[in-house]
Amino acid sequence: MAFNTLSVVFLAITTARLTSAAYSKPVTCATGQKTAHAACCVLFPILDDIQANLFDGGKCGEEVHESLRLTFHDAIGFSPSLGGGGADGSIFYFDKVETAFGANAGIDDIVDAQTPFINKYNTTITAGDFIQFAGAVGVGNCPGAPRVPFFLNRPAAKAASPAGLIPEPFDSITKILARFAEVNFSPEEVVALLASHTVAAADHVDVTIPGSPFDSTPGVFDTQLFIETQLRGTGFPGTGGNNGEVESPLAGEIRLQSDAALARDPRTACAWQSFAANQAKMQREFGAAMAKMAVIGQDKRKMVDCSDVIPIPKPVVGTPHLPAGKTMGDIEQACTSSAFPTLTADPGPATSVAPVPPS
Q1: Concatenated DSSP letters for 72-100?
Q2: Is the pLDDT of residue 119 over 50?
Q3: Is 204 a catalytic residue?
Q4: Which cofactor does it need (predicted)?
Q5: N or C: which terminal CB in the chain sees fewer CB atoms within 10 Å?
Q6: According to the annotation, is 88 in a ligand binding site?
Q7: Is 24's pLDDT higher than 90?
Q8: What SS3 string covers 185-221?
Q9: What sign has the CA pseudo-torsion 191, 193, 194, 199?
Q10: Which pTM does this prediction carry?
Q11: φ, ψ at 167 (rounded to 5°)
């Protein structure tokens, strides 16, 4: 694991630490880009650097998947009763503590990958800002993603997050919803936030099948997750799971126990189904949920809106569909108030999903 050279005490605070109230006139930065707030100018060199050197020229690949995971695992570390700083970069500042949490298995890889960038820009932005900025930029590399809002001005973390605050795929839905309710997320917002799984893959849920994606199009931010999770799981369990994995209907695809349960639980099934054929709704609600998650534990009144620095994602590729070899009879209806949208299947033999290659 890389050694974090940045001190917990964050000095040399720059203009990026000023509040949005101090700025109202759009400016042209020294780099030539325009932004609504001068404080945001510091982000453009960072943007160019991580697109070229963290995200492999702006691809929607493994580093994007892992950076998106890191935004959540850092932010959810807050409880009104147990403490924690939320989206404050504590997973970087106190990496040896937090990467040892069971729910953070494998996350040290992306912490290590981001560490040189965080140290490089440590007099410009905090680790908490960098983690959320990288997540917003990275997901924007995926066709179909929303332009995720980004706010600047998180202070440096003062302490590690308490253990046990990160929901795990084998947790009950009641426990997951209660954990999110602690940080003011409704069940519908939980489902919206999990749209992130459409560009995700798992290495440590089942170590026998690393790089297994959660849907058949992990390079596209589309609604396939909400369709394929609703298929009856008959045929392709992993061989080394027992860590929150359940049977998947597609070869090469992994299905989290929590995703399967959320798609079928009466508290969340209709919200899950509502995204299945509605790309615009998924984009809108995921973007709002991400923006809310990214400021857990923070005072938004002291932050600068730098959303206009985030690149505009490309349009979605493809349309909602059933995987090849499936029919509407394979859909396991769970929402009791409306029918699942009628979809057609891709032509050809039964779908087999390739693993996401490592970076």
Answers
A1: HHHHT--BTTTB--SSSSHHHHTHHHHTT
A2: yes
A3: no
A4: heme b; Ca(2+)
A5: N
A6: yes
A7: no
A8: CCHHHHHHHHHHHHHCEECCCCCCCCCEECCCCCCCC
A9: positive
A10: 0.89
A11: -60, 145
- Per-residue pLDDT at 317 exceeds 70: yes
Q: Is 86 annotated as a binding residue?
A: yes
The alpha carbon dihedral of 344, 257, 337, 196 has a sign of negative
Report how far residue 288's alpha carbon sits from residue 9's, in angstroms, rounded to the nearest whole number.
31
Which of 37, 65, 73, 321 is catalytic? The answer is 73
Check whether 129 is labelled as a binding-site residue: no
What domains sit in the chain, N to C, each tagged with a CATH number?
38-165+293-309 (1.10.520.10), 173-280+318-330 (1.10.420.10)
Lookup: tokens for 318:
């493809």
For residue 124, say whether it is annotated as part of any ligand binding site.
Answer: no
Whether the per-residue pLDDT at 3 is higher than 70: the answer is no
Measured CA to CA, the distance from residue 271 to residue 284 in angstroms comes to 14
How far is residue 75's CA from residue 295's CA, in Å, rounded to a whole number? 7
Note the pLDDT tens digit of each residue in 300-309.
999 999 999 9
